[in-house]
Structure formats: structure tokens, C-alpha cells
Design brief:
6 helices; mainly alpha; disordered N terminus; Cytochrome Bc1 Complex, Chain D, domain 2; single chain; about 100 residues
Length: about 100
């Protein structure tokens, strides 16, 4: 096997390992529950606030990091986001992204 092929196989195995990592459903659900009073149960908002259910993981992570850094305006979210670790942001984002988009 050439070095190029070995590197390709190693990269494919690494990607498969990353994709196989599962979210701890209990931890994710508990963390997401803290968002329910504003964004609805399972992220399906019934108010004027946006639903988080079905929103892409990348979008949620980006917005939460902006709130945390103070570069995104908000009323409550900038303060709340500062209390989350990067791991918690990732966990919540992956959980909300996996939830079904609410019907309106």
C-alpha cells in the first residue's frame, strides 16, 4: 500500500469514528430542557420566539457562540450563553438539530 492510500484509509477511519460518536440522550435532553420555557418543549416554540427543533447544528452552534462572545445582540441569550461550555453548546445543538421540525 502506498503512503497516500494508507493516509486515505486512516482519514476515512477517523471520519467514521467522529460520525459514530453518539449524543448521550439523557444529558442532551436535560440540557435542552433548560431552553423549553422560551423555545418550547423539544425546541418546538409555540410563541413568537424561534423554534430550535430541526435547525442545523452548525447554525445553532454559530449563534450561541456569537451570543457567548457578545457579538450577537439579544435580551437574555447573551447572558445565558456565557454560562455554557463549548461542549454543552455542541451537545444542545446536536440534540435540537435531531428533533422534528414543528408543524405550524
Amino acid at each position: 500500500m502506498t503512503a497516500f492510500r494508507i493516509a486515505g484509509v486512516a482519514c476515512a477511519l477517523w471520519i467514521a469514528n467522529v460520525l459514530a460518536q453518539e449524543v448521550d440522550p439523557a444529558a442532551a435532553r436535560s440540557l435542552a430542557a433548560t431552553c423549553a420555557s422560551c423555545h418550547g418543549t423539544n425546541g418546538a416554540s409555540v410563541t413568537a420566539l424561534p423554534s430550535l427543533a430541526g435547525v442545523s447544528r452548525d447554525d445553532i452552534v454559530a449563534k450561541l457562540r456569537e451570543y457567548k462572545a457578545g457579538t450577537r445582540q439579544g435580551t437574555l441569550m447573551p447572558q445565558l450563553a456565557k454560562g455554557y461550555t463549548d461542549e454543552q453548546i455542541e451537545l444542545a445543538a446536536r440534540w435540537f438539530a435531531a428533533q422534528p421540525v414543528p408543524r405550524r
